[in-house]
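Sequence only, no structure available. Ideas?
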Amino acid sequence: MFNLNKLGVNMTPSNHTNTATATAAAIQNAWLYLTVQQFNQKHPAFPVGTLRHQIFNEETNGLKKSGAIVRNGRRVLINEPKYFAWLESQNGGAGCQ
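Reply:
I predicted one. Tokens follow.
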């Protein structure tokens, strides 16, 4: 069993809350990959056909260069934050404010 105090981790109740908050922030900042179907379910404003068209033309529309599309075997995954960054760059960086 690990002694967290020896490792310099203070597990007092207030620090425990800070650790949970830091963990939640790290999860939000982590890469989030979604399949085309999952992306469509989460963001219904983006039809599956539109996403597939963008992925098919990724060489010419800059989507590949953005790093928003990752392939794992035959599966195509969309990196959500990078996709939205690419989308905003297509409109000259004019996003919702």
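Residues 54 and 61 are 7 Å apart (CA to CA).
Hope that gets you unstuck.
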